[in-house]
Write a structure and sequence with these properties.
This protein is about 55% helix and about 15% strand. The protein is an alpha/beta fold. It has a single domain (about 1-135), classed as 3-Layer(aba) Sandwich (Rossmann fold). It starts with a strand and ends with a helix.
Length: about 160
């Protein structure tokens, strides 16, 4: 599954602060780098490049994350819809946005969609499941102190039963 994330849509959902836009964008990119790696997700994080002079979109690659700045005169919404349209398997794409119009258009092209809140909830559930699996795999080893304590209880129980 490929996750196309409407970058500024998610950024403005998370941040309502005085931090400059570059700092906020860097924090979102770092969050998705960590998330994509942790859960082995294929994520494309798409940002409008308002002042971009490039004719082609610019990409920054990571093992699981691709950060894309749209080319001159193309919005992130247009880029996202173009990617879904050009895909041979749009049903293998999930768009993450809270933009209702973009959601409607993506669904019309057979892509899956999740709102920003739904996606964050889904990631939280994955984190809980991962931690639960980790706990299930942990082996508990009795310490010397625990063994001595249990032995003492057992011996006292034996003594009580003999009399």
């Amino acid at each position: 599954m490929l996750y196309l994330i409407d970058g500024y849509n998610i950024l403005f959902k998370f941040f309502h602060s005085e931090k400059d836009i570059q700092t906020q964008r860097d924090l979102i990119i770092k969050f998705f780098q960590d998330t994509a790696e942790k859960f082995h997700l294929k994520i494309h994080l798409i940002f409008d490049a308002h002042k971009q002079q490039e004719v082609l979109a610019t990409h920054t690659y990571d093992k699981h994350l691709k950060v894309i700045f749209t080319p001159k005169d193309q919005t992130a919404d247009e880029y996202i819809l173009e990617q879904i349209f050009l895909s041979k398997t749009p049903s293998q794409i999930t768009l993450i946005t809270s933009d209702n119009s973009l959601t409607f258009q993506a669904k019309h092209m057979k892509a899956h969609t999740k709102s920003v809140d739904e996606f964050i909830d889904w990631l939280s559930e994955k984190e809980i499941k991962k931690e639960t699996k980790k706990l299930d795999k942990e082996e508990f080893v009795d310490t010397k102190h625990d063994i001595q304590r249990l032995l003492k209880i057992f011996e006292e129980k034996l003594d009580d039963d003999n009399f």
